[in-house]
Amino acid sequence: EAAAGGIRLVRYDASLERRLTQRATVAAELRRALANGEFHLLYQPIVELPHGRMTGVESLIRWTRPDGRTVPPTEFIPVAEDTGLIVELGAWIIDAVCAQAAAWQRRHGPDALTSIAVNVSARQLVDPALPDIVAAALARHRVPAHRLTIEITETAVFGGGRALATVTALAQLGVSIALDDFGTGHSSLGLLRTCPVNAIKVDKSFVDGLGGTPQQEAIVTALTGIAETMGLRTVAEGVETADQARRLFELGYRHAQGFLFARPLPPAAIDALLAQPHPA
Ligand code: C2E
Ligand code: CA
Ligand code: CA
Ligand code: CA
Prior knowledge:
Layout: E1 2-4, E2 7-9, H1 14-35, E3 39-48, E4 53-64, E5 70-71, H2 73-83, H3 86-108, E6 115-119, H4 122-125, H5 130-141, E7 148-153, H6 154-157, H7 161-173, E8 176-182, H8 188-194, E9 199-202, H9 204-208, H10 214-229, E10 233-236, H11 242-250, E11 255-256, H12 267-275
Parallel strand pairs: 4-6, 6-7, 7-8, 8-9, 9-10, 10-11
Antiparallel strand pairs: 1-2, 3-4, 3-11, 4-5
Helix pairs in contact: 1-2, 3-5, 3-12, 5-7
The structure holds ligand C2E and calcium ion (3 copies).
One calcium ion (CA) binds near residues 58, 119, 151 and 180.
């Protein structure tokens, strides 16, 4: 790189150009996909330990392209964030989740699910319109605010500012706020002081550490201890084995989510679970 007569000469970088072109293509694709109705939501049960009864669900987006290929969110959510399209896509997700919540309430009663969670990304949290978007969706579908949980990551609210103001406004609507991937950021504990939080979702990496060193179990124990003291709900994420579930219960965990209990499921499969008679 050199400056010549005020013009910056940047060394030609083919791989960068390829990446940028790819991004632009994916962004255009996403816009078309949204207009074309190619997105849908799956719902993964959140269960109570030790019996595994479903008390809530988390919505997880899927993109099925016209050729039938399903693109995982880890591939397109970052692009949607970078291009700002996540604001439009996010509004669609929030409305779809509220519509689904209303349908389940009608079919299975208002208390069938304690909470329905929706993931909201950092880019959405700096949009001052987000609380209005959420309030409008709740009102449109007549879903009580306390039935909706907004999952945010700690990096999204780290540093305060507008994101923190948005979260505070969301909390004032009466929706529940959950800190996702808890423990993986730089300020997990600090955030519990500044950010209005109702629940923490302990990251899968900690669950994977169970049965490892005593230090690893000590962290898992401490996380739910702090949460309980602060009156927060704790959900353990990514539970895959019965041993993990048993150990989590012994360590004081009462809520879990993971492939052991259920994968993300289409809405009809959640209906089937809700229609089952509850064990006493
Ligand atoms: P996340 O919010 O941490 O969601 C949990 C991810 O872990 C989901 O992956 C879920 O399928 C997966 N998972 C659940 N239980 C297990 C388990 O026992 N083992 C393993 N290995 N994985 C498990 P998914 O659906 O691919 O979503 C990945 C990420 O994409 C999400 O992580 C979230 O950050 C983002 N995402 C998904 N849907 C949305 C959405 O609607 N909006 C936004 N902004 N982000 C979304
Ligand atoms: Ca999540
Ligand atoms: Ca998570
Ligand atoms: Ca994650």
